[in-house]
Amino acid sequence: MVSVLVWSVSFYVAVLLSVAYLTLFERKVLPASQVRKAPEMVGWLGVFQPFADGVKLFSKEYFTPSSSNSILFFLGPCLMLLHAFFLWGCSPGVWGGGIYFFWGGLYVLSVLSVGVYGVVLCGWASNSRYAMFGAVRALAQVISYEVMLVFLYLAPFFVAGSLDLEAVSISQVSGCNGGVLFLALPWWCFCILAESNRAPFDFVEGESELVSGFNVEYGSGGFGMIFIAEYSNIIFLSSLTGVLFLGGGNLLANSYYGFLMGGLISSFMGFFIVFLVVLCRSSFPRYRYDLLMKLIWCQILPILMSFFGVFLLVV
TM spans, by residue (predicted)? Predict the structure, then answer.
């Protein structure tokens, strides 16, 4: 029991360190794409900048707006951070390598589906117009893209004939379905951009429209927890992409850091982190909110359902 607890704590510390240096990576590369300076004063080339930012955020006074629901206002970021940690529960590394999730695919889908509740709770409890607009956008956006997300997510499991993440990864390594699933990869990238609230689909925050969206009233530790949750989800979704569609992660699936390290070794997780954090944010302007829903419901979803029907017939 003690060893499992130690491994679980060390696993989540590794995730938090990954989040810290992912933020530094973003703050280094985005300024380079915009020809401006990046953080470089705290430590050698700014390597300690994430820790300085964390100390600054969590040491500031926690301010609660007078018109907000103070209890729910505090619980919102906690729920988002808890959800981000629960997503990693499908990794054997969380349980010390001794517990294996045969139904890992169903677990991930179930946890992903409730992620919007933290965003809605933050926006509603703030009792602010901009925050509420961001929460309503999150709900409408989820209803739109998660239909497509579920179709694409289930495709590798239909091919593998199992809800086991390792079985899905091994079936791709054997070469029996890699080509078919690779056709679904661009659509999946579209979905994870919306799921992780990254540009050009960052409507729930929308700085040019909603100031900061659902988290506009948050500062100090509350904003820090929301920030950690969002970047942890980026790393998780990138790793999940490698496992589901690119055959990554099977070699170390039963080791302590299997799900995370498998994606790193196959290098697919790193590629999708760069795709999510750098290429899309620095290259594309924010899409219009109503046009996204029209695009999904009227154009992409009918095509995808037709493709999925043919896919089931072939499989």
Answer: 6-24, 70-88, 100-126, 138-158, 170-193, 234-253, 259-279, 291-314
